[in-house]
Each structure stands twice: as structure tokens, then as C-alpha cells.
């Protein structure tokens, strides 16, 4: 058992690294420059450079000593030079070369020059012998900031946001994504603040879908091919066909505004959770009934159930004990896929009912183009899915002794 846990944990770590790499590619490569997206086109280069350095967007992607900088923008031939940089052409040299004034002669900066075309010659004397050397013209200057370690990259920073070591107790820092781009609030504070409302909303939905779905599926399987079974299947398919958004709008108007039975906005007490929980259960129960009914019908064909019934066991023991226990693998698999949403919440429910959970925070981050908060939510959700899958594998052995883990 211990070997299995260690092996599965190592597999989970590899999966997390793949998730980090994929998320890194989406947010750091495909999404473009986050500083330019937040500050806009009219921002000063110093502001862009400062935000880029804070977010680590100026670092090399994986390896390198040179970081991009907006403090000294690139120069091309024909453009005006920024203060502190000049092009001179002293006597004897026909091609221009770069001169940087003392205010920019800093150890942390370097420049790359691009030259093109032969523009002239420089003549000089060495040990009494005349020499003539061709000179090319200066076409472009690109400035970089030099960093000490070439391994300090954007990808390493993304890994350190998940886990890193610190010199102070507890010597480990987990899920430290820094601050949001828009409000400058610590992201860890937002995550901790949003977990409780999401749990209060999603835990009753999860338990309601699971218990009611299992009960109705057992009834449908017990009365297979009867009017009760067909009615339950018909209602389940109809519930799966109706859009989540339609149910939300109808419930808010019909039960909230028209009959005034429930409040429709806010998070100030249990009454504010009744309507969104009801909507969540109604929208999710149809899929559960269909799935569990299929599982139970397949199990009903097994010999052990016929043997249990032939021994005179009551239907409650046949279905409630033997059938459920042998179908536990499929139940755990489906339930484990829904468990991460207990913490991350529901985007639609939290947005339409004004519940300040993690789903609401995700919509707000998307609206404000806060890529740092979005990345934190995506990685947190991925970690929860990996952890729940690991726990589900361990639960398989508890539910079914036939599974040998070693």
C-alpha cells in the first residue's frame, strides 16, 4: 500500500509539472505582455518596466542572462534617441558608433547593436605600418538588463509560485501567487476569502445531487422497464437538456421576484443559499440519475445479486448493501470528479446570485483582465483535481478488496 501511495504521488507531481508547463504557455506566451495589457498603450516606459519586473514578465522564458527592459527602449536608424544615449562619428571613422552617457553606464544593463552595410573606412597606424579597416553603419540598438543567475526564468518563477523554500519557519511557501494586477491585493487573501462561500454553496449541492441521484437511480433500476423507470429516465433527460442559464433565470424570476420566496442576490445568511442550491441540484441531478441507473442495471445482471435474492434477503439489503457496495468504484469515480468544485465554486451560480466565492472572483478577474489571479485560480483548480484523483485511487482499495494495489 505504501509503495502504491508513493508511486501515485510521484505520478501526481509529474502531472502537476505538466499542468504548470501548459498554464505557463497559455498565460506567459500566448497571452502576451501582461504589463502592456493592464497599463495600456499610453503608459510611460518606466511604468511598464516596473510592472514587468514585478510580475517577472521581463525574465527569459527558461534560461538566459538578459532580461527585456522598457527603461531603455530599442532604437532604430532614423528614430530620435532617448536621453542618455547618443551616436557620434569622430575623426577618421566614417561609420557611427554608440555612446552612452554616464547616467546609463550601469552594471545591470547591456546592449546589442545591429550594423548593416559598409559605410566607410577607418585609417590608423600600428608599429609604423598604415592600416585601413572597413566600418559598417549602426542600424539598431537593443538594451537588456543583466541578471546574476541565468536560471532565474519565468518558468522557474511559475514553479516557485506553487511551492518554494524559505529561510524562515515553516520553511515552505505554498500557493503564493503574489498580488493581483488591478487591486494589488494578495492573491492568497482572495483565495482564502472565497473558499468559504464556495463551500457553503457547493457542499449542499454535491450532497443533494449524490444522495437524491443514487436514490432515484436505485428506484429506476429496481423497476426497470416499467412506467416508473421510463418516467424517471424521461425527467432526467429533460433536465439534462435544459440550459443551466435558463433554469437560473426562471428560478430567480418565478421563485424570487414573482412569489418572493427567496432572496436572489447576496451572501448574508442561509436563506440566500436556498435558491442557488435548489437550482444546482435540479441542474445536476439528471445526469447523476442517468449515470447511476446505467451502473445499477449492469450490476443487476450479476450472479451475486440473484444469489442474494434467492437466499431470501430483503430488497433493501440486496440493493442497499450488495448492489451499492459493488458499484462503489463507479460512484467514487463520478463523485471525485465533482469534489474540486466544492472549493472552486460555480461561475454561473455565484455570478447570478452575488455569492463572493472563487467562481465570482474568477469572473471578476476575467472582466478586469487580471491574468495573475486567473492563473492562480486555474492552477489551484488543477491541483485540486490531481489530489482528488489520488484520493479516489486510494478509496478504490477501501471500497473493493478485489483491487490489489501492491
From TrEMBL:
<keyword id="KW-0813">Transport</keyword>
<feature type="transmembrane region" description="Helical">
    <location>
        <begin position="373"/>
        <end position="399"/>
    </location>
</feature>
<keyword id="KW-0472">Membrane</keyword>
<protein>
    <submittedName>
        <fullName>ABC transporter permease</fullName>
    </submittedName>
</protein>
<feature type="transmembrane region" description="Helical">
    <location>
        <begin position="231"/>
        <end position="258"/>
    </location>
</feature>
<dbReference type="Pfam" id="PF00528">
    <property type="entry name" value="BPD_transp_1"/>
</dbReference>
<keyword id="KW-1003">Cell membrane</keyword>
<dbReference type="Pfam" id="PF19300">
    <property type="entry name" value="BPD_transp_1_N"/>
</dbReference>
<feature type="transmembrane region" description="Helical">
    <location>
        <begin position="331"/>
        <end position="353"/>
    </location>
</feature>
<keyword id="KW-0812">Transmembrane</keyword>
<dbReference type="GO" id="GO:0005886">
    <property type="term" value="C:plasma membrane"/>
</dbReference>
<keyword id="KW-1133">Transmembrane helix</keyword>
<dbReference type="InterPro" id="IPR045621">
    <property type="entry name" value="BPD_transp_1_N"/>
</dbReference>
<dbReference type="GO" id="GO:0055085">
    <property type="term" value="P:transmembrane transport"/>
</dbReference>
<dbReference type="InterPro" id="IPR035906">
    <property type="entry name" value="MetI-like_sf"/>
</dbReference>
<feature type="transmembrane region" description="Helical">
    <location>
        <begin position="195"/>
        <end position="219"/>
    </location>
</feature>
<feature type="transmembrane region" description="Helical">
    <location>
        <begin position="270"/>
        <end position="292"/>
    </location>
</feature>
<comment type="similarity">
    <text>Belongs to the binding-protein-dependent transport system permease family.</text>
</comment>
<dbReference type="InterPro" id="IPR000515">
    <property type="entry name" value="MetI-like"/>
</dbReference>
<feature type="domain" description="ABC transmembrane type-1">
    <location>
        <begin position="195"/>
        <end position="396"/>
    </location>
</feature>
